[in-house]
Amino acid sequence: MAFRLPNGSTFDFAEEYSAPVVVTAISNANPAVVSAAGHTFVEGDIIVLQTGWLKLSGRGFKVGTVASGTFELVGVDTTSTQRYPTGSSAGSAKSVEKWVNIPQITEVASSGGEQQFYQFGFLEEDEDRQIPTTKSPSTLTLTVADDPDQPFVPVVEAADELKEERLQRLNLVNGDIVLYNSIASISNTPSLTRNQLMVRTITLAQQGRVTRYKKSA
């Protein structure tokens, strides 16, 4: 049994990426091996992957063992050819070259991600049935102290203006990291409530499933 407080955790926002490299294939293996001729990734890099395999596309991953023209995706099992059909995994990948920290976070709220259901019943039955379908879109909302001199402010504002996807990294106090890929927006003006901290709100509309890595990964 384990439990912990979030106190001391930090949150980073991708500021700069490397140039994307062409991914020609991803193997059906555990861990998955990506073929990308001429890549310059090193072990431990954080990348965002775009691929024909939608279960992996638009997600952040950690680079594992690197060889000439290939690299592993840490913790990614693609052995199922039903979920990951052979011959449809081409795409691109790019690594985060620079992160900017978002300090002075007063609150983190998560919404969405609820399981949706299809409900039905047969003529001869007295009770309906339900089966799970998709999950609703997920959103992460950060409330931050208003400080226009913080380096993250122009970075997040630029991402908001362009409506482009950016990676985020949550660094937990036990050494785990959680990766999000989101489209960010930030409130234009701070809240103005007497005797309360002036804050702005950063809303992160997630574009892919989060990826969590334990400290040892």
Summarize the structure.
It contains 1 helix and 16 strands.
Report on the architecture of this protein.
There is one protein chain. With 217 residues, this protein is mainly beta. The protein has two domains: 15-99, Ubiquitin-activating enzyme E1, FCCH domain (Elongation Factor Tu (Ef-tu), domain 3, Beta Barrel); 101-213, Beta Barrel (Elongation Factor Tu (Ef-tu), domain 3), CATH 2.40.30. The chain has one helix and 16 strands. The relative contact order is 0.21.
What descriptors fit this protein?
Elongation Factor Tu (Ef-tu), domain 3; 5% helix; 2 domains; mainly beta; single chain; two-stranded antiparallel ribbon
Secondary structure: elements and pairs:
Layout: E1 10-17, E2 21-23, E3 25-26, E4 33-35, E5 46-51, E6 59-67, E7 70-73, E8 91-101, E9 105-112, E10 115-120, E11 129-135, E12 138-145, H1 152-162, E13 165-171, E14 177-186, E15 199-206, E16 211-213
Antiparallel strand pairs: 1-8, 1-13, 2-8, 3-4, 4-7, 5-6, 5-8, 6-7, 9-12, 10-11, 12-15, 13-14, 14-15, 14-16
